[in-house]
Write a structure and sequence with these properties.
Layout: E1 3-8, H1 13-23, E2 31-40, E3 45-54, H2 57-60, H3 64-69, E4 74-80, E5 96-100, E6 103-110, H4 116-125, H5 136-145, H6 151-159, E7 167-172, E8 175-180, E9 189-196, E10 202-210, H7 214-217, E11 222-226, E12 231-236, H8 237-242, E13 246-249, E14 258-259, H9 261-266, E15 272-273, E16 276-277, H10 278-293, E17 304-308, H11 314-326, E18 331-333, E19 337-339, H12 352-362, E20 363-365, H13 367-370, E21 374-379, H14 386-396, E22 402-407, H15 429-432, H16 437-444, E23 448-451, H17 454-458, E24 471-472, H18 474-477, H19 490-495
Parallel strand pairs: 14-24, 17-18, 17-21, 21-22, 22-23
Antiparallel strand pairs: 1-4, 1-10, 2-3, 2-4, 5-6, 6-7, 7-8, 8-12, 9-10, 9-11, 12-13, 15-16, 19-20
Helix pairs in contact: 5-6, 10-11, 12-14
Amino acid sequence: MCGVFGIYNSDSAAMDTFYGLYALQHRGQEGAGIVAADYDETKKKAQFRIVKNFGLVAEVFRDERVLETLKGRAAIGHNRYSTMGSAKTPQNVQPFLVTYKSGHLALGHNGNLTNEKPLRQKLIEDGVIFQATSDSEIILHLIARSKATTVVEQVYDALTQVQGAFSLVILTDDALIAARDPLGFRPLSLGIRENKDKHGKKTPPAYVVASETCAFDIISAKYKREILPGEIVVIDKETVRTGETKSVFLPKSERKARCIFEYVYFSRPDSVIFGESVDKVRRKLGKNLSHEGGLKPKDDEKYVTVISVPDSSNTAALGFVTESNKQGNAARLELGLIRNHYVGRTFIQPGEHERGLKVRSKYNIVRGVLKGRRIVVVDDSIVRGTTSKMLVQLLREAHPKEIHLRISSPPITNPCFYGMDFPTKDHLIANQLGGDIEKIREELGVDSLVYLSMKGLLASVPKYEDEKGSYCTACFSGAHPLPIEEVSTEKEKNDE
């Protein structure tokens, strides 16, 4: 998934980027980095500085003096979540920074290229030397090798050669460039922030780009608009002077493929992605789930106890309870699981052992809420089943009467090649058990299991009537919007 952030025309560009990445920490926890550009007007020369390493944002930039070395009024940042290229290779931590014929070039990439393998092979045959195993480096080489004269044209030239998912922030000697693939797989938004001098007088604003709008909120920037699928946005001195960004568009795709899993799980509920509030969509997911999997109280019960698996399913659980009560199925939301926020997201841990080990350290049970009760556990998804199985075992320790699991998305039966870390069917519990819900229920050890249907999922997300296709649902349906035969398995090889 990864998180990308960029800012232009800020007195504190590196610090703003740090906070932006901090807000986007949920999108990647394996590494973080910032590149800052300092433009010397007298020398007409730009100086780029970079700091990146493995770990969380607060760990990489633990010493505040490091941020002070990243001087300049423009910066980009990246949180790494490895889906292509080894999680253990330092060279794969982004942003990437190079110097080439047109000056400096720094790049942060969210997404996966589906034609990475043939492109890499062709570049190697042409004599290109790769420093990393990530597909993102291919974009850098294509830009550097372009015969076009301007940087924007070089970027355009490169992006017409790649296929797949890409939301990019690119820092050049005189501009911040943001780009999104024509199918719009991953989110990317544009924001603006008022600047003031030391006397409180308004000065030209800062322009901000981020994977999610929660990164705008933390630095007091305002959401302006979504960067459109296929759009390349250029932010430079002229933008600051006139207030107008410049855009060029990649060849148009008749259909779009917004990742529906962003709404289900990955994005923060306080963000706006694909032009819609994540919180609003997740409440709808929960409401539709209550229609398909609601539970009536028994005669000796005043209500059904509903708990969420914090934090990503909190909002869906609220929607589930609200709609259950409207239907006459008395339900009450309780805090049955307490999350330790100092432990990362278990789903995006790179290894199976690390993922399983962190489940118990991540959640504590509230025994008084659970003991002797029938409980409905609302969760957003089941991928490998490791986390869900261990959670059920943990909940059983509180001696509830029954555990009923409700999932606010359909079964994940197929791999994702566009930026999520489940690249093979073998790792997916729904696929392992042939899509048999009863077998999954038995494997997880719950009294009942209901997934939201595909119809319920699609009824919960925004509609785009003028498009032939609006969402990528490949992980649920197997309907891949792009060819997948050339997808590399380099990450698996390197991580073994």
